[in-house]
Specification:
Length: 238
Amino acid sequence: MIANGYKKKVQDAFGRVKDDISILQKELSQTKKQLDHANKELEDISKERARVLNPALSFTAKKIFFTKGVGKSTKKLESFENALRDADIAEYNLVRVSSIFPPNCEIILRNKGIKQLNHGQIVFCVMADISTNEPNRLIASSIGLARPADKSHYGYISEHHSYGEDESKAGDYAEDLAATMLASTLGIDFDLGKAYDERKEVYRMSGKIVESRSTTKIAYGDKEGLWTTVLSAAVFVP
């Protein structure tokens, strides 16, 4: 009898411990949820603070335009400045960025894009440029673009500059580069060893790439030996 009574007390004690553990587990789970929620709120607050303090960190272009130009001068830097003027983008503080075409971004004409920018504004762009002071030397700069059919997905912008390539060759290279980068991202199966014209047809047939194109500027080095600069750019508009 005494043994049975002791056994019953032990069983009751274990039962209470199990209940206490169950309650603690529930409280711990609830506390974890509260901590996760608090951490999420802190993360959101940090992101909002960063956005307010530095709007550039959250800048995603809604529009983009393409431009190109050529310039000459006795000094290399001045020839570059003259090329910027020819391209109508000398009035801005240009910041070169890497080569992502933003989702849902609209391509607009250069004159329309210029009207939406202010002199002295910090402007982001993807730019290709090259200079020479060798008389009659052919130089080329090109910007390639590949846009996905799904507008909510990002595309690719490529930059290319070269010596001795005509407009067609330089433009095709830049377009090929952008299209191939996008194709690899979208999981399109292609043979990199094949000519671009063949791969371009594969990209088109996949239905995943809606457009590929290029903007190219070429020039021959000044016959008197002046510095000659060509540039091509994709300019982002807020």
